[in-house]
Design brief:
The protein is mainly alpha-helical and 142 residues long. It has one domain. It has a two-stranded parallel sheet. Helix 1 runs antiparallel to helix 3 and helix 4 runs antiparallel to helix 5. The radius of gyration is 15 Å and the shape is globular.
């Protein structure tokens, strides 16, 4: 399971579809609808949030919006749109780690996206995250 801190606009098709599916799974975990993945480290930041289910729905809303810009047909009904927006923090080290991780994937899967991403000076985060200085997040599996 990978719930990216970087903006989903950088993901290739395979990555965006996987993010959608995996974040929906995370939503089911937070809602208590599945027994698997309950202790997955990627869920820690959502579990620690003020309203974990609101936060995962907010996260999914941005993934859905990115899918719309690409004319993908994701099911809007999978999201509870009655969430109050909030901001979670993510570290500079985490953004750097994820950027490198994605570049490694894109080098193999999508050379065009790889070329664009590797030349960017600044990588945007998912809009629900505020970047703070720090190392790779403790929940990250490296």
């Amino acid at each position: 399971m990978r719930i990216w801190s970087i903006h989903p606009k950088y993901l290739d098709t395979k990555g965006l579809v996987a993010l959608w599916r995996e974040t929906l799974l995370a939503k089911h975990v937070l809602e208590g609808k599945t027994k698997g993945y309950r202790n997955h480290p990627q869920l820690d930041r959502f579990k620690r949030a003020d309203k974990p289910i609101d936060r995962i729905n907010e996260y999914l809303a941005t993934v859905y919006d990115e899918a719309l810009t690409r004319n993908y047909n994701f099911d809007k009904g999978k999201i509870n749109w009655d969430f109050e927006p909030s901001i979670l923090c993510v570290t500079t080290g985490q953004i750097e780690y994820e950027t490198g991780h994605l570049l490694n994937k894109l080098k193999v899967r999508d050379k065009e996206k790889f070329d664009k991403l590797q030349n960017l000076k600044k990588i945007d985060q998912h809009p629900m995250f505020k970047i703070i200085k720090g190392d790779i997040e403790k929940w990250e599996i490296t």
